[in-house]
Amino acid sequence: MIQFSHAIADPEGLHARPIAAIAATLAPLSSAVTIRVGERSSEARDLMGMLGLGARGGSTIEVTIEGPDEEQAAEALRAVLP
Hints:
Blueprint: E1 2-7, H1 16-26, E2 32-37, E3 40-43, H2 47-51, E4 60-66, H3 70-80
Antiparallel strand pairs: 1-4, 2-3, 2-4
Helix pairs in contact: 1-3
C-alpha cells in the first residue's frame, strides 16, 4: 500500500478536466486508488464521486493506492495531479 498527500495547486481545484485526466491515466492500471478530502472519499476513477469531494485550490488530498501495480499508479497519478 502506498499513501501520500498532495496539495491542489490549481486555483480551480479538482474540476472536470483534471478528474478526467486522472481517470484516463489510471484506466489501464488495476490498483485501487482512493482519494480523500476531509471526511469524504472516492475511488479515483469515479468521475461523479471525485467531483463530489469538493477539492478546491489549496486543499490537501490524501491518496491511498493498493494493488499489484501500485508503484506505477502512484508515479502516474503524481504526474497528472493539479
